[in-house]
Design a protein that fits this description.
80 residues, 3 helices, elongated
């Protein structure tokens, strides 16, 4: 773009999808509470995969997270 941008008058609209594509303790702390040794997405994934107890398992926990992150009725409310 060759147009100038003035932050005082022009507006940028967007949606923060952090937590959907990148899982970090400061973005999705609830996922990390059960696994205190996990410090990032890699170590969280390892801990979840090793968890064979009720409510454990990597796939089921991440799918539950993704299923509630963005739901279809919310999408029309996003700015164009």
């Amino acid at each position: 773009m060759n147009a100038s941008w003035n932050w005082a008058t022009n507006r940028a609209y967007g949606v923060n999808l952090g937590g959907l594509f990148v899982i970090e303790p400061f973005i999705s702390p609830a996922l990390f509470q059960k696994y205190p040794t996990a410090v990032d997405e890699w170590t969280l994934s390892q801990a979840m995969a090793a968890d064979t107890g009720p409510g454990g398992g990597l796939q089921s926990q991440l799918e539950a997270h993704y299923d509630t992150f963005i739901v279809r009725p919310f999408l029309p409310s996003l700015p164009p």
